Amino acid sequence: MSEKTENKVSIEDMEAGKSYACFFEAYTMLNEQGQPARGQIGQSFPGPGNYEGFGLITKRDLENKKLIVLDLDTKYDFVVPFDKVWGIDVAEAEAE
């Protein structure tokens, strides 16, 4: 995915009202392609593993040291510990 780069913005210094993005790693159930699995009851998957993604930080919990990150590829939310995110920076929207 991405080399683990330093954060341009620290988690503690993020300002309310601004959007931030980051790379992250989450331990989750994966499908055959190594992507996060979302299935129905009874559906089987190879097993859990580490998934790396890039997304928008939607919530920050300073007390429990966790973030909720919306993965831009899968559109899934992940709860991620502070030590499993890197490359935090201000997010900027681009016109399509």
Primary descriptors:
96 residues, mainly beta, SH3 type barrels, 5-stranded antiparallel sheet
Q: Provide the succession of SSEs.
A: EEEEE
Task: Give the total of domains.
Answer: 1
Low-confidence stretches: none
- Largest sheet, order of strands side by side? 4-3-2-1-5
Number of strands: 5
Could you explain the architecture of this structure?
- The chain has 96 residues and is mainly beta.
- The chain has one domain: SH3 type barrels, CATH 2.30.30.
- The chain is built from no helices and 5 strands.
- A 5-stranded antiparallel beta sheet has the order 4-3-2-1-5, with no helix packed on it.
- A hairpin with a 5-residue loop joins strand 3 (66-71) and strand 4 (77-81).
- 16% of the residues are buried.
What is the compact description of this entry?
By secondary structure, the protein is mainly β. The chain contains no helices and five strands. It has strands at residues 20-30, 47-61, 66-71, 77-81, 85-90.
Task: Give the SSE map.
Layout: E1 20-30, E2 47-61, E3 66-71, E4 77-81, E5 85-90
Antiparallel strand pairs: 1-2, 1-5, 2-3, 3-4
